[in-house]
Design a protein that fits this description.
mainly alpha; 2 domains; globular
């Protein structure tokens, strides 16, 4: 898919960092024949960045991630969007996925860099300008996505797996507390005399006691 660098905020127009959403979307939706090195899950992008931003804020080093706020994004060329209605269903899905993640990427950037602190990135003039530009970019991408969805209403947004527990894990059921009757029966058994005395309820009483001790 023809792609190009867009939304770069660097003064000289060049950046050492770029987010290639076009490639990530293609490889995520690609066939199994893709090499292992190219297989990836684009759904991991946003939660990993959120974790990075939270870690940097806790360490007081959010300014180190400033290049991520200003870096360009590799997106499909405008010419591809202009002929969106003529594309195949697979190509439409990829483009909608790119726009979907691009809009949410900008949202995560705004959440990460807009902080009510004097040492925050948005406290500087450069930071404020970058944040405002990212807000404008978000509105622009949302309009593009809306236009594409009107021509491809069957598109299903990717699952946001990091916000829901999709596992089948269930907490173990608590063992019942020991009753006084079961404890007394076991005590009587241990004090019993004579061959075979107490054997009749040996296993049941011992199991009741073991279950009670697990709870304690």
């Amino acid at each position: 898919m023809p792609s190009e660098s867009q939304f770069g905020l660097c003064e000289n127009g060049e950046s050492d960092v770029a987010l290639n959403l076009s490639a990530l979307s293609v490889y995520s939706a690609g066939p199994e024949k893709f090499p292992p090195a190219l297989k990836c899950k684009i759904s991991r992008l946003l939660p990993h960045f959120r974790l990075l931003a939270a870690t940097l804020r806790a360490l007081g080093g959010s300014k180190k991630a400033f290049p991520l706020l200003t870096c360009p994004v590799i997106m499909p060329q405008q010419g591809v969007l202009d002929k969106f209605e003529t594309l195949s269903a697979t190509e439409k899905n990829v483009i909608c996925t790119v726009l979907f993640f691009c809009a949410n990427w900008f949202r995560e950037l705004l959440n990460a860099f807009v902080q009510p602190r004097q040492d925050a990135v948005n406290a500087t003039d450069e930071g404020k300008a970058a944040v405002l530009n990212r807000l404008k970019d978000l509105l622009f991408v949302q309009k593009q996505l809306s236009a594409c969805l009107s021509a491809h209403p069957t598109f299903v947004p990717p699952a946001v797996l990091h916000l829901a527990d999709t596992s089948s894990w269930q907490p173990p059921a608590a063992n019942p507390a020991p009753t006084m009757a079961s404890v007394a029966r076991v005590a009587n058994y241990t004090r019993g005399k004579g061959k075979g005395r107490g054997k009749k309820r040996k296993h049941d009483d011992v199991d009741d006691l073991e279950q009670g001790m697990d709870v304690l």
